[in-house]
Amino acid sequence: MNDVDMVVSPGETYEDFDKTLRAFLRHEFGTCPPIRRAHHQLAHAATAFYGSGLPDAACIVLDASGDGISGMICHGDRESGLRVVETVPNKNSIGFFYTLMTYFLGYGDGDEYKVMGLAPYGEPSIDLSMVIRPDGEPSIDLSMVIRPDGDSWLFEPSFLRNDPSPKSPFEATYSSELKTILGQPPRVPGSQMQSFHKNVAASTQRAFESCLLNLVASVQRDTDSRALCFAGGVALNCAANLRIIESGLFEDFYVPPVASDRGLALGCAYLGTVEAGDSPAPIEHAYLGTSYDDEAIETELKSNGIEYKPIDDPAREAAKQIADGRIVGFFQGRSEAGARALGNRSILALPGGRAFKDQINARIKYRESFRPFAPAVNYEKTTEHFETGGRPSPYMSVTFRGKNPEADSLGAVVHVDGTARLQTVHTESNPLLHALIDELDKLTGTPVVLNTSFNLKGQPIVESPRDALMTFFGCGLDDLFIGNYWVPKRSLP
């Protein structure tokens, strides 16, 4: 700690936070460097802008709330730094809107991605011109909750509680009001998903995208920038990110792998770096976590009495098993930073046939059947199967349209709307996963692998060899490739 020049933390608006943090650091380390408090939303903006490596960009930050506001518009310049242009108050939080609807659909905080995945199964019966649907289904009009307005949107703040809430700012108010607006009560958690709920999800996503695109267009007009950096929890909505790309408003579009609050520490470090007079380096890849050498892995295997086989080429051997229809855990190198597994702490399988999607949801992930899986594809062959226009997507930040969405060869990784949350794999950042996909291409004729995070429902992504072994033996995975060792559940060949 004596070598640390500065500690930077979010919480600029928190009273007495310096005192609390200083006391903790002195207790833990016996000393405390100078402390700087950064604004939550500015730290998000720093994560995106400095992480992108772009020389100049507009920056949009949107989440539920942080340091008293729900968003921030900035302009980033490598020479002059970040300049705050505008802030978004909590009473107009688009993040709160999406969470509000997440609760209505029977989910909780952090489950917004489920609503995004459910949306393509419904019809967006909301129509911002308030056109009544012709099929007789009840019209879902969310314009009383949120609607495009001016350069952004207008969210009805009466849904928010003013007094502290133990679970959500909506729990005491949303039920009766949304029942009146939508004509049905909220879904009871765990109950059957009806077509009405799917339509609410679709309508939520449509309203969200319409409002977001309204802001994005105004930011482009005001800044005349050709590059956009996007961060905050709202930036994890990869379906809306495709809409931003397809709008053609920006030539460059960047979302960091740690777009949500997972990235605040990096953003604070960037801000401290700039204050210290240094030049922040961009994020080259997301493989920034801990690695475990073969000795540590073998020690864990032996201490638990697990049968294993040393192998020279885990990528080739894993590809063979995947080509044979087996579902494998892949634990290699340094763990990924951020919300999504990118091949080093992953579950991998064939991308073809919807049976694989159903199997993984049912006997491995133990989650809802509608939830989609992501494809990982070697970058140089991406445009053979997906409409990316050559755009790299190393962090699964955007969904892209499949060129042949009905093809059975990609049936497990293309969602019902014909899109896929794509990861492009590059030899420079992950040569092992790239080699695995190359080998799978030779064996199956498809340079794509189904990739989902190595964890069970409700659990974090595995980090250590012990985590990997506990998860492997606690679910229906067939094989585990952990470092240069192969652990099958059947007898070793």
Quick tags:
493 residues, alpha/beta, Nucleotidyltransferase, domain 5, DHBP synthase, 2 domains, 8-stranded mixed β-sheet, 5-stranded mixed β-sheet, 32% helix
Notes on the protein architecture:
It is a single chain. The chain has 13 helices and 19 strands. The strands form five sheets. The chain has an eight-stranded mixed sheet with strand order 10-19-18-11-12-17-13-16, sandwiched between helices. A five-stranded mixed sheet has the order 5-4-3-8-9, sandwiched between helices. With 493 residues, the protein is an alpha/beta fold. It has two domains: 245 residues, Nucleotidyltransferase, domain 5 (2-Layer Sandwich); 195 residues, Carbamoyltransferase, C-terminal domain (DHBP synthase, Alpha-Beta Complex). The protein is 32% helix and 19% strand. Strand 1, helix 1 and strand 2 form a beta-alpha-beta unit. Helix 3 runs antiparallel to helix 6.
Would you kindly provide a brief summary of this structure?
This protein is an alpha/beta fold. The chain has helices spanning 17-29, 40-52, 94-104, 112-118, 174-182, 195-223, 238-247, 264-275, 294-303, 314-323, 354-365, 431-444, 465-473, and strands at residues 7-10, 35-38, 56-66, 69-77, 81-89, 146-149, 152-155, 227-231, 252-254, 309-310, 328-331, 345-349, 374-378, 399-401, 419-421, 423-425, 448-453, 479-482, 485-488. The chain has two domains: 39-283, Nucleotidyltransferase, domain 5; 294-488, DHBP synthase, CATH 3.90.870.20.
